[in-house]
Amino acid sequence: MLLGCTADDFTGTRDLGNTLTCAGIRTTLMTGMPGN
Length: 36
What we know:
Elements: H1 10-22
């Protein structure tokens, strides 16, 4: 399963990642803008 999520602040992103990780789903946190 692939799941993408966009958050408007770091706190929301961290909280969602923590919730998913606690549910046994591997997560990756990426910050910043992708390069061209």
